[in-house]
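User: Quick sanity check before I run a bigger batch. Here is a single chain. Can you write out its predicted 3D structure?
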Amino acid sequence: MPNHFVAFWNLENLFAPEGHANREPWLAQRLASDLRGWTPALFNVKIDQLTSIIQQMNGGQGPDILGVCEVENDFVLQQLTSRLNGQISNRNYAVIHVDATQDHRGIDTAFVFDSSMYAVNPNTVFSHFVMRRTGTRDITQATFTTLAGNDLIALCNHWPSRSGGAYDSRGYRMTAGETLSYWHQRIWEQRGNHIPVIAMGDFNDDPFDDSLQIHARASRERGDTERAQTAVRFYNLAWRYLEQQSLDHNGNPKLLHGTLYFHGNGNVFDQLLVSKGLLVQGSPIAVNEATARMEIYPEMVDHRVSQGPIRFGLPKGDATQNVNISGFSDHFPVSVVLQEH
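Assistant: Done. Predicted structure follows.
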């Protein structure tokens, strides 16, 4: 039976070009200064940069399922999948996207998936709102049915940022964690506690923060999740990233410290959480936890900033100062392999 390569990537401000015809007026006004100079040519370079990394995943075959965040709309997703389908042979990528976000910058979560490997019933696609006074990103849920007829439920997250300070904003991410575990519980009630579920995303908190450990119920201990009977729990694979090594600019092994870096300090905000249904013996789909990793390729790494990713940026009126066309995103992707039995 096949393996399933599942990944997540924060694509960092993947907006349609300045003046995009279908952009809502309120959003065009709000983004006017950030997107000034965001030409179709620059947008296409950004798409090319993202494609060059995505196509390297999974041994050059690209991911089977890719969760993404910081995407503006269906237009940018269709441009990305079109480029991917042109670059990777035997792929037929399609998009799952619900344009219903309440985020003040209009950015969404979504899935890119190989439609020749999975069927997705539109009735199994949901957009779960995270209730916040000023609005925030939704959680996108979809059920992927494999060719063998097994279901995998995936939830793509982008939790509220740390704007205003990590402590003062933490309540918003706790609310997001409660939202995720609420819908995880509802899934159990509808499908049973052995249904395979994977939650992925940029959680804007580390694995040890309360929003993940307490509110999303994402544990470092596999056994806690395997033993769960009535109350949902995730097993957080992100702890495994801390064992991962890269090479510094001198070619020497170096432990990695984060999926993104802020002022030179690493954070592990990009995480993969798996349910009991991907862990228990006899499950039709099981996680190979040893494969959980950050997807890091040499061209992505800025050796000047603690091995962090090279961001692409937005012009904000001056592309020569604020855009690096050799960059990609301010986050590294993360991935894991699921094995179908």
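The longest helix spans residues 170-191.

User: Great, the batch can go ahead then.
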